[in-house]
Structure prediction request, 421 residues.
Amino acid sequence: MCVGYAMLMLCRTVVGVAGPAMLQDPTLHLDTASFGAILGWGTAGNLTGKLTNGILADKLGGSRVFIAAIGLAAVATFIFGTLSSNSAFFALYFLTIFSKSAGWPSMANIIRTAFSSDRHGRIWGFIATSSRISSVATTLLLSSLLLILSWRGLFFVAAAIALLCALILPKFLNRNIPEKERHNADLDVEDAGPSGSQVAHPLNNKDTLGAILCFIRNPSFWLISLGVSALAVLFEFQVFIPIYLSETFDLQPEEAGIASSVFPLGCLIAVFLGGFVFDKTSKKSIIFVMGLTLVVAILCLLGLRYLGTVELNHLLELILTMSLIFLFGFAISPAYYIPMSVFSINFGGKHCGLLVGLIDALAYFGAMMFDFIGGEVANKEGGWQDFLMILIVTSVIATVTMVVFLTVDYKRVKNLSLADK
Prediction:
């Protein structure tokens, strides 16, 4: 799963890395606004995919959908590298991210079946770490390749690596899960009580429509959806970072790409530690930990905006900017990846792929709007300051919503424990 999801991230990240070089290509007639539109259509693909791929993963099996997604993303990435018109970019990036969107729902099904519930936090942490390692490696490798290859060459390299993995991985993911593990997965309750008793999950007898109705009637579903939506907008900053650094500090495309790797590096360290912290820390303490990290994210964005209003030494300002971007990635990653993923398996049961898809679909709708709006805002004179202000407001919303969600979820689990006693 780690290798496979890394390939999906490879196909997604290459667009952000190639962005500055694409803007400098005179044959493309791209500007920041049209590049933001490309990202917006990709996010629309994510939204569409989340609404469909979660159901497919529940019906067809996580492994099948996972492998198919990697193969389709590789093909779409290769074709993207051959294109020249904006409308073609929109369509192929839509298809690439549509494929990538199957990753999380299909892995939720695999994890539900293959691992016990007390390990879900650290498993999600490892997989999220894989996505961040891929993002760091992609940024550094492909940015370096820009020294000898055109931006089109980056897409061809990424597609070749992903397609090779799609051909090899079925040998490993198609192994049968032991029947005992399947049985235990189906017996998992939303959260086990202290007695350790096992009863059938309340959604086991629900069809897809029944499960959806159950989800939308639950306040926690709407809280986590709003919180993850706000965090998804914050994560969209990642694909704008190379252009932001290039235009703010007059960096070459390959330099901006390498410098932007600090964001996924911060994410990598955070999610690697975050899975263990989530499993080992009480739900009550997690409220404080997650809230604190999101407050740090707000401070990082305020710092970035302040740096844009003062005159500092050019090199010092670049170092401070990269440091704040690193810390920002570190601060938002655990809250973005882990609570939603663990909640979806516990609350969704055998419909966990559907639940992940619904939450992510709502999240990427917000991110899609930001891609279009953020690109237009940043394209104006002095627009990056307004761009950062949008992120600051969104970060405040994310902090409040996630703290409320974690508080409600803590009370829900506490009530379940009392009922079990």
The radius of gyration is 21 Å. The chain has 18 helices and no strands. Residues 152 and 343 are 40 Å apart (CA to CA). Residues 176-198 have pLDDT under 50 and may be disordered.
